[in-house]
Amino acid sequence: MIRSVLIVLSLSLSVNIFAAKSKSNAPQSKILTSSSKGNAVRSILINQFKRNLKAKEISDLKKQALNYAGKAIPALVYIMKSSEFPDRNRWVATFLVGQIMGKKSGPFISKFLSHPNWVLRMASLKTLLALKLKNYGDLYGKALKDKSFIVRKQALENIRKFGLEKQAPVVWSMLYDKRNYYNPKDGGKKRTNLIKEAIKTVGELKFEKAKGPLLSMVQKEKYKDIFPEIDYSLTRITGKNSPDSLKLKKRFWRKVAISNQTF
After folding, report:
1. Which of 27, 168, 207, 214 has the fewest beta carbons under 10 Å from its own?
2. Model's pTM, two decimal places?
3. CA distance 219 to 234
4. DSSP reduced 3-state for 69
5. Could you give the CA distance from residue 164 to residue 138 in angstroms, rounded to a whole number?
6. Cα gap 121→114, rounded to integer Å
7. How far is it, in rounded angstroms, from Cα 211 to Cα 213?
């Protein structure tokens, strides 16, 4: 997982695709006029994207592709689909397709949420988020069960930022997914930070069915490591603000739990 995190950090730092467009600084010999044939554009981009590029080269190549506009799409689509290109470049190609085509690229990019390569799944989630395409909620919910921890984390971010209340039950189910826990060397089972984020998200989505379990969990010692997240979530769901101290908070939520009981 550490390797995956490093890859994502590298990709995120090197690919600021959705920044404002600027004039290309790429060598003029590589830039074609708008009347140039599409197959020439395709050949140039494919040859460039096959290389292991440095950050500055990627920046120049992005500007070059944006200058080609729609003529770059056939090459970028080919790059996304082919494993002969470095993962980093396929990530760049995904974002470029989104930037050039805009929201119209949604149906195509969303298909990569089930791609075998986690880098493409991750890039698709990030691109759809940048394009503000919230209508793929069911696919984001499905991605919460992805085998990649990083993809699950990104899917959760999409759901949270889009406020997709319909996906709240799937978010809640993350607490029961053993892949969101790890086994330390000293034994036992520990919660990853993804559990904390999931608990906060169900609160932001105001998932009423989580209120009862959370009111029970907030009183138990074994959940003390996620007490702040439970408290936050209950505040969002109930609309009630708990006191400042831990002791008073527990007492406050105990009273809320009693008031919610039916006899």
Report:
1. 27
2. 0.86
3. 12
4. helix
5. 9
6. 7
7. 6
Give the HSE-up count for residue 177: Cα atoms under 13 Å, Cβ half-sphere. 20
CA torsion, points 158, 163, 165, 168, in degrees to nearest 10?
40
* Number of DSSP helices (H) and strands (E) in the chain, helices first: 14, 2
Residue 69 backbone class (left: φ over 0; alpha: ψ -120 to 50; beta: rest)? left
- The per-residue DSSP string of 176-228 comes to G-GGGEE--TTSS-EE-HHHHHHHHHHHHTT-GGGHHHHHHHTT-GGGGGGHH
Q: How far apart are CA 81 and CA 74, in angstroms?
A: 11
For CA atoms 31, 37, 40, 45, give the dihedral sign.
positive
Specify the DSSP class assigned to residue 21: P
Q: Are 124 and 110 in contact (CB under 8 A)?
A: yes
Q: Report the alpha-carbon distance of residue 60 to residue 76 in Å, rounded.
A: 15
| pLDDT tens track, the chain, 263 positions | 555 544 554 555 444 556 544 444 444 344 444 445 578 999 999 999 999 999 999 999 999 999 999 999 999 999 999 999 999 999 999 999 999 999 999 999 999 999 999 999 999 999 999 999 999 999 999 999 999 999 999 999 999 999 999 999 999 999 999 999 998 887 788 999 999 999 999 999 999 999 999 999 999 999 999 999 999 999 999 999 999 999 999 999 999 999 988 64
Cβ within 8 Å of residue 110, ≥6 positions away? 124, 128, 133, 136, 139
| Torsion over CA: 33, 19, 26, 13 (sign) | negative
E strands within 3-153?
Answer: none
